[in-house]
Write a structure and sequence with these properties.
Blueprint (H helix, E strand, L loop, with lengths): L5 H10 L4 H13 L1 H8 L9 E5 L9 H16 L7 E6 L5 H14 L3 E5 L5 H10 L4 E5 L8 E8 L9 H11 L16 E4 L2 H11 L12 E4 L9 H7 L4 E3 L25 H10 L3 E5 L6 E7 L2 E5 L1 H18 L7 E6 L4 H9 L3 E5 L3 H13 L5 E7 L3 E4 L8 H17 L4 H12 L1 E10 L4 H16 L4 E2 L2 E8 L4 E4 L4 E4 L8 E5 L4 E6 L5 E10 L4 H23 L3
Parallel strand pairs: 2-3, 2-4, 3-6, 7-8, 7-9, 12-13, 12-14
Antiparallel strand pairs: 1-5, 4-5, 9-10, 10-11, 14-15, 16-23, 17-18, 18-19, 18-21, 19-20, 21-22, 22-23
Length: 575
């Protein structure tokens, strides 16, 4: 899409082959709400390295049938330039408004470009799209979802043949093709009944469950009382059956079990936030259940809470990742089945406790940039190059985990099975997952982490503010934060680390990204980055302390963590 002014974009829609209702709405807004019209057309919706995510509605800066068609035409053009014997794309969609329509439009554009479109018959969790792409040997896949965003958002994620989200060189190649699509006249569309559009039903679920059941670690564990909420999302389609395949059953949170893109019985459908799991926690207390699981609308993220000493304890994403890794490694060691050259992967913002656990089991731990696509890319690189590493587990602090390699994106379904098994194993020894977490703290030290989101306007002013803050931190970094000297800065945009005060620059072996990581003298760390999907600045913080008095140390670390973030915001993000 070419660079144009707001007025030029508006006029293009008024002159183009768009429906009359759309054109009439534009004319009304010109007279009644020019600012809203400007916000909708001030830029072309950017097709980023993961695809699209935006509010639904009228305009070039919104997600609608037209922007979906333009993006899909760019993807089709890129696929048709590849030296492939066949071309097929798997398409899934979540529960949101228009998701099914957007998925069908994408299928029609692919078919119009002589590409086979395999469209799921019903709502589909993201991990099943990744699995389906691999299972049907497709060249790419599309998932229509905005994950845990509010109801007014939707999105368009693209996967490559390995089942992982697109990375270099395909991401940039697709982006360039999308940019070339200047108007709707360039889009080829087939009818809905095109023979190139194939509907995919329950056979996909059966194949996934068969693969998942083979990864079960302990066949005989105590029964577990599990409460599950899909938060009105796609997890209801398969997660209860997945737990059953591992020997567990679950009770559903009745108000939140029905798929509904308005998410009527949850303030925000994000299992990272404890308030999203409140109804489930009430049910857990009432039933004196062992475990609560909650998945986001596209079932790639999972949150968990446990009943510990009569009260619900919400586990963070970092804690769940560490508990799953410990359970997995411990089980494989007991069974004398831990592979040689085993390896796990975490993102640069994920807790350093994860690395300590891995290395204690003589398992390599690799850091990648934030985003699960980088974990998938590393797995694919190992397999294609026949590297010695045997992938075990990957995790990120934002409640995303991957167990096994039959899926190549974060998978709340298999992760829920692993969490349940870890909880049942702890119960067998008279413990909860909180007890297991404190055992990890005693062994490796107390690690406490937080994420702070600074929301900014979703317009040009907000984008400029984000860039100004990042530029300011680069050109004038702090010498200390909350009284602790800064000893190292990792700048992932320039791909270099600066060790202070020696000013030695060391290359960072990761792709360029607009991220800064600050290391402090007391082993605390801060990572600052703009969100890739929302108008937000993200501050990840972690503190560490080793002490045998775990409860006291947890309180001390949490206080330090709060002060660290508050001090940083006040002094460096206030302007």
């Amino acid at each position: 899409m070419t660079t144009q002014t707001t007025l030029e974009r508006i006029q293009l829609w008024l002159d183009g082959p768009y429906d009359e209702k759309t054109k009439e709405t534009i004319r009304e807004l010109q007279n009644t709400d020019p600012k809203a019209l400007s916000d909708a057309f001030f830029k072309d919706l950017s097709f980023g390295t993961g695809g699209l995510r935006a509010k639904m509605g009228l305009g070039t800066n919104r997600l609608n049938l037209y922007t979906i068609r333009l993006a899909t035409q760019g993807l089709a053009n890129y696929l048709n330039k590849q030296p492939l014997d066949k071309r097929s794309v798997f398409i899934g969609y979540d529960v949101r408004r228009h998701s099914a329509e957007f998925a069908l439009e994408a299928a029609r554009v692919l078919a119009g470009n002589q590409i086979r479109a395999m469209l799921t018959e019903d709502i589909c969790p993201t991990p099943l799209v990744s699995f389906g792409c691999r299972y049907f040997e497709c060249q790419a896949a599309i998932m229509i979802t905005a994950s845990h965003n509010p109801p007014e958002y939707n999105g368009y994620k693209v996967y490559w043949s390995d089942g992982g989200q697109i990375v270099a060189p395909h991401d940039q190649g697709i982006i360039e093709e999308v940019k070339k699509i200047q108007n709707f006249f360039q889009v080829l569309i087939a009818p809905e009944d095109s023979p190139l559009i194939e509907r995919i039903g329950g056979s996909l679920d059966e194949a996934y469950l068969e693969k998942l059941s083979s990864h079960r670690l302990y066949p005989h564990l105590p029964s577990l009382d599990i409460i599950y909420t899909p938060l009105h999302g796609t997890g209801i389609r398969i997660l209860p059956q997945a737990l059953q395949s591992w020997g567990f059953s679950c009770s559903l949170v009745d108000k939140q079990k029905t798929p509904d893109g308005q998410f009527p019985h949850v303030k925000t459908p994000n299992p990272e936030e404890p308030q999203a799991l409140e109804l489930g926690a009430e049910m857990m207390i009432e039933r004196e259940a062992d475990l609560l699981l909650g998945t986001d609308p596209d079932a790639d993220r999972v949150g968990a809470a446990v009943l510990h000493q009569g009260a619900p304890v919400y586990l963070t994403g970092n804690q769940i990742a560490c508990l799953c890794l410990e359970h997995l490694c411990e089980a494989l060691v007991k069974q004398n089945a831990l592979p040689k050259e085993s390896a796990c992967i975490k993102t640069i913002v994920t807790t350093e406790l994860f690395r300590k656990i891995a290395e204690s089991y003589k398992t390599s731990c690799f850091d990648v940039l934030t985003g699960f696509k980088y974990i998938a890319a590393e797995i694919e690189k190992w397999q294609r190059s026949q590297a010695p590493y045997h992938y075990l587990f990957g995790g990120e602090e934002s409640f995303g985990y991957l167990f096994g390699t039959f899926v190549r994106d974060k998978d709340a379904i298999s992760s829920s099975c692993l969490i349940a098994e870890a909880a049942a194993s702890a119960k067998q020894h008279g413990m909860t997952l909180v007890d297991k977490l404190y055992q990890l703290y005693l062994r490796y030290g107390v690690h406490r982490e937080s994420l702070t989101n600074i929301s900014l306007p979703d317009n040009q002013e907000g984008l400029n503010k984000i860039q100004h803050l990042m530029d300011s931190l680069r050109t004038n970094p702090p010498s200390e934060i909350n009284g602790q000297p800064l000893i190292q800065i990792d700048d992932y945009l320039s791909s270099q680390s600066k060790y202070l005060p020696t000013n030695t620059l060391t290359p960072i072996p990761l792709p360029s990204s607009n991220v800064l990581r600050f290391w402090l003298q007391d082993n605390s760390k801060l990572v600052i980055r703009p969100s890739g999907t929302e108008p937000k600045m993200k501050i990840y913080a972690e503190v560490f302390e080793h002490s045998p008095d775990i409860h006291k140390t947890v309180q001390s670390c949490d206080a330090r963590l709060h002060d660290l973030v508050q001090n940083f915001q006040k002094l460096h993000l206030a302007n």
